[in-house]
Write a structure and sequence with these properties.
Layout: H1 5-18, E1 27-31, H2 35-41, H3 46-67, E2 71-78, H4 86-104, E3 109-114, H5 122-133, E4 141-149, H6 151-168, H7 173-179, H8 182-186, E5 199-202, E6 221-224, H9 234-245
Parallel strand pairs: 1-2, 1-5, 2-4, 3-4, 5-6
Helix pairs in contact: 1-9, 2-3, 3-4, 4-5
Amino acid sequence: MEMPGFLYGFYERKLQRSLDPERIPRHIGVMVDGNRRWARQFNAPTSQGHQAGADKIHEFLGWCQELGVKVVTLYMLSTDNMNRSSEELDLLMAIIANTLDRLDEDAEISVHAMGAPELLPDYLAARLNRLTARTPTREKLHVNVAVGYGGRREIVDAVRELLHDAVARGADIGKLADELSVDDISRFLYTRGQPDPDLVIRTSGEQRLSGFLMWQSAYSEFYFCEALWPAFRKVDFLRALRDYAGRQRRYGS
């Protein structure tokens, strides 16, 4: 049964007040899943689901700014998604481009692009480059936009860049192989210099990683929500944060 509006608002405020600011995750990864299924529920075109999902992204980022989250990584388009029909991809790319334009309007958000720009249309890759180069007047939230992203590809790209760097420095490759460490590879990931995600949220009821931040999420906490992404409410987010705050994080065995 759906909660009446005034009771829902009361419950949401109560949940938010109960959160310990010291237990808010610094970095949250979000797998924005379920746009197409949401559209099918309403017999709406797929593009309407993607647009509703894009609108939810901006709403979600507002919640993060309000609650003090510092970094958000959005899994918006995977390399596997590039196999969808050209018609759907064209519409999706246009919606992503519009989403980037809206992010560009927020003076408190900085943006970093993650993925393979060569897989994207020139206009979208150009917008990502321009937005990444922009310096916000006052940064309150850093947003990683994973577009044309694949977790395995990221690791391969990191190792490739590490090797190119070693060759450029005239390093002994054999010695590098013997001494290679986790930190060596981490220095060349798309998220280099950033904290690993404390919490990864996936909507739509699916419970798998799908290649998202495979390296960085080794010790992340995961929260799976049944709501489809366009229907993800602030109260769902607050529940995820409450669940995270109640966990005892373990780094290792």
